[in-house]
Amino acid sequence: MAQKKSLRILLIDDDKDDQFFFVRTIEDIQSSIVCELADNGLKGLSALLKNPNPDIIFLDLNMPQMNGFDFLEIIKKDENFKHIPVIIFTTSSHLQDIEKAKELKAVAFLTKPNNLNNLSQLLTKALHLDFSMYTEINIIH
Amino acid sequence: MILIVDDKQENIFALKSILEMNNFEVDTALSGEKALLKILRNNYALVILDVQMPDMDGFEVAEIILSYSKSKDTPIIFLSAISKEKKFITKGYKSGAIDYITKPVDPDILLLKVASIYAMSAQKTALKRMQTELLQEIEARKISQTELALRNEELRTVMESMPLIAFTIGKTGEIEYTNEKWVEYLGETRQLPNLNPENKSNFPHWETSFMNEEEYCGEVKIKVSGSDAYRNFLLKIIPVKQNDSIIKWVGTFTDIEEQKLVNEILEQKVEERTSELLKKNIELEVSNRELQQVTWVLSHDLKEPVRKIITYANFIKDKYIGNNPEAQPHFNRIIESSERMADLIDDLLNFSRMPGSVVFQPIDLNRIVSQVLSEFEDEIENLQANVKVGNLPVIEGSPNQMRQLFQNLLSNAFKFAKPLQHPEIKIDAELVETCEFNSKAAVNGNFCRIKVADKGIGFDEKFLDKIFLVFQQLENKNLDGTGIGLAIVKKIVEKHNGIITANSTIDAGSEFIIVLPVKN
């Protein structure tokens, strides 16, 4: 899907280690992908304002200052950003979180795995999702 | 019968003839001695006695007759031919005779006299009999009166000796007798106290019982004489019957104040205990919830560092020691152990997240199972597992918990598959009559029996009790898994008011049987 122009991803996650592995894994999958990083919801918003229209947002839930759901709620109400597909990227696999993510129109829910090989597989799956055909949240596992 | 006593046969004959002609029964004696013998044996209405007789004259005979108790009332007529002087006649009357007739006898006069004497005698006998009867009657009445008095006395003694208020009521309804306790409690009144001061309709009215001639029983509050306090009494009034008709009523008031108090105290105690238990229960629930929260927070916080350890260990292994065969197995141990720890934490999280109550809704088990199977896609593909699912019913339950239940059972089946073999798993269900494992199948049954069978390594059935407990890994320490999965399954089944068990044979496989109500 992103062969013509290079894909731009915004990762909003307060965990530095997860940021590190995410970027590494994404680079392994496709080196042309551009990853932008933000440490929490608020910083994610300002990153969006500075540099609008990333192709995908990967969003952690549990973060200081502004958590993932608050961020999601805000951008889904904003005409400029509501079209951007958001994939929840979290350690949680709690059903309530999945339900809420679905409610707030996240396109997919990806539980952070323990293993890098698995992360690579899951991210590959996530990047191949067809976001234009959004019907129900995709649980990526 | 008339006795004629004369020493001359011809005299006797003449008299006897006259009397017998006039329908009198006649007996005769030829001497005073013979007459006395006859009088001893028989009763005579009249004795006609000749005065002049040899050996014993008429006067002597009369004297003996009249002094003998049996015959002392027998009327006697003297007959005399010689002793016509006044002194003889006087002597005759003095000796007790009613008449003194001189010979020759005028038959008509004699007959008249005999008849009137006979009648008198009969009357006298009748009177005497009546008197005797009267005397007997009086005697009998005296006896029964004494008995009655005795019985009354007995009743009174019993009533006085009772520690109860006791009284009797006459046929007409008025109080006849009250014992000392009555006076003590109610004073000098002769009226029943107001029986239903609070108009408690659950007690019958004494008046009704009285009219219907039925035993009365009720509870009343009585203001004790000389105090303001009311006490509770049990009032019983029982009819006393004689020949099926009521002759009186006997009533008692039993003081049940203390019993009532004890009862009230008991009730209060029970209430206190109940509320105490309820409080304890709530406290327990709170502490249980707190414990669950603590478990959740702990495991949640533990999860993150363990995930980091695994991720970094994997990263280092891949990047730096892939070509160091000496270090690699040790590193694998780090990763395996950490992964086990991560699984354990996940299970703990799941267990602590189980909600306290279930919101029941209709769920199609076919849909739940196919969702779960899609999550196991990779395992099924990698292990080339054969999973057969029969037609499953719709039951009432929590979709999330049902999903968890099948996830855990399937994960268990995969985990305990025989090494290097393709797992064979079968899920099916049927409706049954009762909530029993061996219940009969029924098309419209109210319960659903679900079986999840595998052909894995199985377990020894002696551990059946243990497999559903938290952290029971049985004896095989080499097995993967934390043993919490089945505990969660059991908890879910119980929350759905169902039952669970398992059959297993080592090296042949296990079968889990769950019975759940269709409606909850």
Structure explained in plain terms:
The complex is a heterodimer of chains A (141) and B (520). The radius of gyration of chain A is 14 Å and the shape is globular. By secondary structure, chain A is an alpha/beta fold. In chain A, strands 2-1-3-4-5-6 form a 6-stranded parallel β-sheet, sandwiched between helices. Chain A has a single domain, classed as 3-Layer(aba) Sandwich (Rossmann fold), CATH 3.40.50.2300. Helix content of chain A is 38%, strand content 18%. In chain A, helix 2 packs parallel to helix 3. In chain B, a hairpin with a 6-residue loop joins strand 8 and strand 9. Chain B has 4 domains: 130 residues, Rossmann fold (3-Layer(aba) Sandwich); 94 residues, Beta-Lactamase, CATH 3.30.450; 94 residues, Helix Hairpins (Orthogonal Bundle), CATH 1.10.287; 162 residues, Heat Shock Protein 90. The two termini of chain B are 111 Å apart. The longest helix of chain B is centred in the middle third of the chain and has 64 residues. Chain B is an alpha/beta fold and 520 residues long. The mean pLDDT of chain B is 85. A 5-stranded parallel β-sheet of chain B has the order 2-1-3-4-5, with helices on both faces. In chain B, strands 7-6-10-9-8 form a 5-stranded antiparallel β-sheet, with helices on both faces. Chain B contains 14 helices and 17 strands. Chain B is 48% helix and 21% strand. Chains A and B meet through helix 5 of A and helix 8 and helix 9 of B.
